[in-house]
Amino acid sequence: MPLEDLEHIAQPAADHGFWIISDEIYSRLDFDGKGVHSIAALPDMLERTIIVDGFSKTYAMTGWRLGYGIMPESLARRVELLLGCTATFTQFVGIQALAADQEMVSNMVEDYKQRRERLVSGLNAIRGISCQLPQGAIYAFPNVSSFNIPVRQIADRILTEAESQCCQVPILGNMVKAISGDALPPQTKRSIPLWNDLIYFSPLISSRPWNHLR
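^ thats the sequence. predicted structure below, dont judge the formating
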């Protein structure tokens, strides 16, 4: 989120004394090297911000369910009463991730960046679709409003006619989110590493349902 947007949020929080929960799980998946701002770093916000983060994105540890929160100690003592303890072996895995050479994270981000460029380039090559280049994370949000068809219908047709998966994003209006899916042919899935099937989203669908939507 741009710094000016964070400042816009922080000002009323400081003025009226309410708390901010900041989900920073994608903070290290930064493709443009500009860094990710945290609202906790703004004036008067450290004592009223709860940062939620984890290992699932930075270290590809989604299934381990290992996360953490950063907050004032007085609040942490209360929150601790509500949570169970993470399994010991999971904690050891987290320690290994933190102690390892962090170049692996940089290499992963660079790999994601290249896949992002291929995916967005492929989407923008499809007549009627526009897609901005994401600055981070692992999602693309193509705009399909030019088809004048409800997004849910488009998502259903992609699934049934192109055997690819996507999902509707209601808060963004006529946009769909490209995600990896199990609908790819088995022989294709075996040859594509995890996340790589994202880059095949647009070639897979470009010659089928899109040509019939208008």
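The domain at 3-99 is CATH 3.40.640.10 (Aspartate Aminotransferase; domain 2).
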